[in-house]
C-alpha cells in the first residue's frame, strides 16, 4: 500500500513570489548599516556567504557573519525594514504560482507557505499580494520556536498544525539549497527545487532535491503523476 502527498510546503520569495531584487537590496542596506559597505575589503566574502545561504533564516545568517553582541540584531532589523518597504512596492506572484496553489488544494492536498522573514514582514507581504486566504497555513521561524531553515522545524510545525499523518506524505518546494535540505531533514519524500530564484540545478541537487522544475507551476502535474506511489507504507 502507498500513500500520496498530503501536504505541500512552498517557499515564498523566489519560489512563489517575485521580489525584483528586494532581498538583495535589503541585505545591502543591512550590511551598510553595520559597517560593511560596498567596495570594502570584506564585502566580497560577505556577499558570497549571503548568496550561498539564501533560504536560511535571515537572523541566523547575520549571527554567523556578526557574532558581536547586538550587531546581528541591528543588521536584521535594517534588513526587515528595508525589505518590507521594497516588497510593498515590487512583490508580485511568480507566473503560475497562484494557479499552482489552487490546483494543489483542488487535488485534496494541504498547502503551507513558508518564509525566513519575520512575522511582521510575512504579514505585510501577504497583504501586498492579497494572499491572506490563499493557503491553509503560512509559517515563519517565529511560528516554529525561532528556528528557520535549514532546520526542519517550520515543515514539522505545518505537519502538526495541519494534522498530516506521516512526514513522508510531505512535499517541499523552494528555490534554494536550504529549502531542499530542510525538506529532507523533515522527512519529506519530495524535495522539489525550482529555477526561478537563487540557486541553480547543481546546487539544488547537491542539497538533496528529488526533482528540479522550471517553476512551481509544474508541481501539481508532478505530484499528480506520482499519485499514491510516493513511498511505501511502513509495515
Automatic annotation (TrEMBL):
Query: What biological-process GO terms show up in the record?
Result: DNA repair
Which Gene Ontology molecular function entries are recorded, alphabetically?
phosphoglycolate phosphatase activity
One GO cellular component term noted in the UniProt record for this chain: cytosol
List the keywords (alphabetical).
Hydrolase
- Among its keywords, does the record have Membrane? no
A Pfam family that this protein carries is Hydrolase
Q: What NCBIfam families would the database entry show?
A: PhnX-like
Protein name (record) = Phosphonatase-like hydrolase
Q: Which organism is it from?
A: Amycolatopsis dendrobii
